[in-house]
């Protein structure tokens, strides 16, 4: 198994196109063609993580947080980032980051947190737009089934929990083949009328290249006609945060204790208790204060996230309870998520969950 094969699998479920503009997800250090001896899964990359990888004979580290966010102007070992880069290169260890691209999928970081809290009826809190395309193509009736099947196999036609979705309408196409052409039907220099099917399917932006490749491979025409249209529809499969419900309402104190136990945190920073039961829960792993308006709009009883600044707590405005559990604490289950997803594709592959605590925040 090569590094590139694992990278490709991760990017099938969490495409790099879904990462935020500020992010730097993907392979950061290493040769894609190298064979993997073992994989270490971690939240952060630190010097102790590099040491753990060496001790466990792992030459591939997959982290949630990127080691490299910005370009390095020098690599002299002046800080932990530079020292990690030096050590990783010296020991032929590749480093990969699955960050906001893993946050922004329905089965990603926030879904895992929701599972830990036993939430039900979960869906993305803030769905993304501009992630969906519509493909329209025109195919002779005789080849419509072949083309549809190829498009579906490439990932087109999925809407929510449905797949193989398409719209089909019949019409007449016209064309005239000129010099240098080899028409599938019709004669050179003569108008030709052909009964065709107009096929429309939905696809994600990151699927476009593969779908177009498959379309051109099976379409019988020498010059297939097709259009891509950008849609403004929200995508239920991509976006930030998660919204779900408890099986039954509980008191604020009971819920905060459950959160404290689940995230194994010594403290939770929170807004004033409102004396209302907790039933609908909004959450976002990592720094999620930007999603507070969405949580309020969704009429959540509580919003769980991290890194709230002092004045941002005022924005709850007695409309819901904010529970800040800490950045590391909120994302600590990402290692498990990565292991589960990779093992679906590679069930016998050597995957190690890091035992090194990388949380830089201590509590006194």
UniProtKB/TrEMBL annotation:
A divalent metal cation 2 binds at residue 64. Signal peptide: none annotated. One of its GO terms (molecular function) is metal ion binding. GO terms for cellular component: cytoplasm. The keyword Metal-binding applies. Keywords: Metal-binding. A divalent metal cation 1 binds at residues 65, 103, 327, 331. Homohexamer. NCBIfam families: YbgI_SA1388 (TIGR00486). Belongs to the GTP cyclohydrolase I type 2/NIF3 family. This is GTP cyclohydrolase 1 type 2 homolog. It comes from Microbacter margulisiae.
